[in-house]
Design goal:
100 residues; alpha+beta; SH3 type barrels; 39% helix; globular
Length: 100
C-alpha cells in the first residue's frame, strides 16, 4: 500500500508541476543544486517537457539541455512583461539583421 501512495504522491507532484510549468514556460535560473559549467545565474530557458523524476526538461538560451529539479534547483518563471520584452528584443535583432 505504501508504494501505491508514493506513486500517487509522485503523480500529484507531476500534475502540479505540469500546471505550474507547462511546455513553453520561460524560466530564469537562480542556482543549480550542483555545479555545472556554463549555467550562470540569470540564464534563461524554455520548458520542453517533464520526465518521471519529475524534472523539467529544458532548452537553455545558451544551447544546453540540462534539466531542472524543481525541489532542488532555484529558478523562477518569467513574467508576461519580461516575455514581451524578450520578444520585442528578438524582433529588433531580426529587423537589424534584415537592414544590413
Amino acid at each position: 500500500m505504501h508504494k501505491f501512495q508514493s506513486g500517487e504522491v509522485l503523480q500529484r507532484q507531476k500534475e502540479r508541476l505540469k500546471q505550474m510549468y507547462p511546455v513553453g514556460t520561460r524560466i530564469e535560473l537562480n542556482a543549480l543544486c550542483n555545479d555545472e559549467r556554463d549555467m550562470p545565474p540569470g540564464l534563461r530557458g524554455t520548458v520542453v517537457g517533464m520526465d518521471d523524476q519529475p524534472a523539467l526538461l529544458m532548452h537553455w538560451d545558451n544551447g544546453r539541455t540540462l534539466s531542472l529539479f524543481p525541489y532542488e534547483d532555484s529558478f523562477r518563471k518569467l513574467t508576461p512583461e519580461e516575455i514581451a520584452n524578450e520578444q520585442t528584443e528578438q524582433r529588433q535583432e531580426v529587423s537589424g539583421i534584415n537592414l544590413t
